[in-house]
Fold this sequence. Notes:
Blueprint: H1 2-25, H2 30-65, H3 79-115, E1 119-123, E2 129-132, H4 134-140, H5 158-163, E3 174-180, E4 183-191, E5 197-203, H6 205-239, H7 246-276, E6 286-289, H8 290-307, E7 311-317, E8 322-325, H9 327-344, E9 349-356, E10 361-368, H10 375-378, H11 390-395, H12 402-412, E11 416-422, E12 426-434
Helix pairs in contact: 1-2, 2-3, 6-7, 7-12, 8-9, 9-12
Amino acid sequence: MRVRLLLSIVGTSLLGLTLFAILDRAGVGGAGAISVLLILSLAAGLTLLLSQPFGVASDFAERLSRGGSPPRLPENAPGQTGDLYRALNRLAESHRSRVRQLGAEQAETEVLLSEMADGVLALDSNGSVVRANAELRAVVGSADPIEGRAMSSIFRNPDLVRFLAPAALPADGANGEFEVFGRNMLVTARPLPTDGIVAVFSDVTELRRLDAVRTEFVSNASHELKTPLTTIRGYAETLLDDGIPESDRQSFAARIVDHSERMAALVEDMLTLARLEEPDRWIERVPVRLSALAESISSDLALRAADAGIELVLECEPPELRALADPEGVRQVLENLIDNAIRHSSASQITVRASKADSNRVNLSIEDDGRGIPVAQLERIFERFYRIDPSRSRETGGTGLGLAIVRHWVESMGGDVRAESTLNEGTAFHVRLPAMES
């Protein structure tokens, strides 16, 4: 600004000297020449006086437009210059406030996008990625930014690529479920005012798995209940016939009782599983003396084991070994595992062993010397209603839920359970639980 002012003064001075020389040669008197020179000087001064505020204002606006923060203009300037400076200062304050607000909103948006459990993808009108949050990058398996890449180069599912094509998206958006890198994704797409689209990817893989488990459970439970119900109905209808012998009547009544007990046991096991799966279920954690509990349960099951020709053996070292667990949970775990071995193992001996696994864990093992379980089936034996030999399992009265209950109880108490087996040599179930601190 100062340079322009200096150049203006020099220019005006040179112009005045030139005119003075011309007038002098033309014979104009010295007084006239001086008068002309004074008028020109006055005009130049007025021009500089009037143009200087506009130059200051121009510099101020230019610095503001480039994102700078120019110093406030003097608002005590006289006349309209002061009004202009005050207006520019208010404009600058409003601009700074808006920039701060936009910065805060952008930071908030960044936090929201980064913390979202769903993937968010924004595409331009050509189908190129404009924005993708960290969750979306995790979905597609990319640790690096994917902005600028074509959407068709990221997704392998052609149906999803067609679904996300901006030109094909309806004005009110669309929803669809697609397989994305091995996961089930619910994709919700909506058009943007800029002719692009924004899509939200929600992982529903676990939800679909649970739906399948629930459907399978209802189907299996219905099948398990249908068999005894059909049998009970048949025997009951037969009992309505007055002509059947008394011996058959007694036999049919006994079978009705057997099947009703089986149904009651099945319903009780299903209720137990339902209670164990409640997210707010309270699990008690108190010292549980394993030797005493194992001896009590073995005593209750000793008669059944003897009838099956099985010897129950208890081994606990040290005798005072304690687990930090739910007493009812440990009882149900031992009862189900010992009962399962008596029913299905065809063993001559079942050993219940409690020992110290390490400084933080105790180990409970139920081992038999029976026919064993095929290795291919070991991974599935803890599933609900899974039976190695369905016909034989029903004959022995099992509900098919015992090992599922064992797994849920053990995991809810902070432990783990596994099985190992060798055909014709036996099976061992190993349960690890938190140990009572010594």
